[in-house]
Amino acid sequence: MANLGLFFAVLGAALSAGLAGCGSAIGVGVAGRSASGVVTQEPSMFSKVLILQLLPGTQGIYGLLIAFITLANIGMLGGGAEQISLLSGLMYFAACLPMALGGLISGIAQGRCSVAAIGLVAKRPDQFGKAMIFPAMVETYAILALLISILSIFGIPAGI
What we know:
Low-confidence stretches: none
Radius of gyration: 19 Å
CATH topology: Four Helix Bundle (Hemerythrin (Met), subunit A)
Number of strands: 0
Mean pLDDT: 94
Distance between the termini: 18 Å
CATH architecture: Up-down Bundle
Largest sheet: none
Strand content: under 5%
Number of helices: 5
Shape: elongated
Order of helices and strands: HHHHH
């Protein structure tokens, strides 16, 4: 109980990286299965379906970024973690939640959307540009979650 604030801040960082990473892993996994099926039939489609498969991977990167920013702000990356109040720790925890939950849900949704886009490209290779727009639209919400987490983290006042 000596530093419960630090515990909650680190928990927020871990959830941000972990849940967003899980969303990306699931999304990239389902899209990869679909892409593999297309490449089995048409190996020349590899580069197009690979791009569509990689799109859900960004949420994990965003979650990791939020975790790094949080850990840097509380002094964990420099080796000397600061004593922070319970209120500050809870604020960091809350600031990490948009990216944690947004990354999890949007990574999975983007993977499913990528599967559909891969199916479109398999049938109509000339429609790759249009097919890419659909999963890219889901990315918007991952970026919004990233933005609100960043603004929240940098908005936490020092010394409370």
